[in-house]
Amino acid sequence: MPDSANRPVTTDGSTVDVLVRLLDDGIPAPSYAHPGDAGADLVTTVDVELAPRQRAVVPTGVAIALPDGYAAFVHPRSGLAARHGLTVVNAPGTVDAGYRGEIKVVLLNTDPEETVHLSRGDRIAQLVVQRVEKARFVRAETLPGSHRGEGGFGSSGGWTAAR
Ligand SMILES: O=c1ccn([C@H]2C[C@H](O)[C@@H](COP(=O)(O)OP(=O)(O)OP(=O)(O)O)O2)c(=O)[nH]1
Ligand SMILES: [Mg+2]
Questions:
Q1: ipTM reported for the complex, 2 dp
Q2: Confidence (pTM)
Q3: Binding site residues for substrate, as ranges?
């Protein structure tokens, strides 16, 4: 199957080739920590200090070309979230198939007291590559009925709005 720039892309059903440009010597390509992992770790190219509740757009030193029909999603890492309250503001960040710029991570220190210190090369987020459908939005005056109907935002119970 060719990609959007007509380069060959191979997929064996469980892997897909994603072209990657390394923009910074010494910074590795995204990599999976264990076989079977869904997320490939991204690292920071710079030292970062995040004061309590501060956010920063952090470079990762990689640019990719996903095949058409794929997207990549920038997710937080659970260890950093649990230990330091570090998250990704726009989680999951969406990397479009046509994006050729450097992947960046919008990190947020949610901890109210502790500063987070990150060093160049630290793994800060993980990239999940997925197939995505392209929708055709077909206008309709009425929508087919469903069990849920228009209920949402806690309609199934177990949640009380704060006053
Ligand atoms: O966490 C992220 C999210 C996005 N991007 C890059 C890739 C993506 O293809 C592009 C645009 O992202 P998005 O569509 O979420 O942002 P936008 O605010 O809608 O910008 P645009 O108008 O460029 O679409 O920014 C990242 O590097 N990291
Ligand atoms: Mg957009």
A1: 0.99
A2: 0.91
A3: 77-79, 90, 94-96
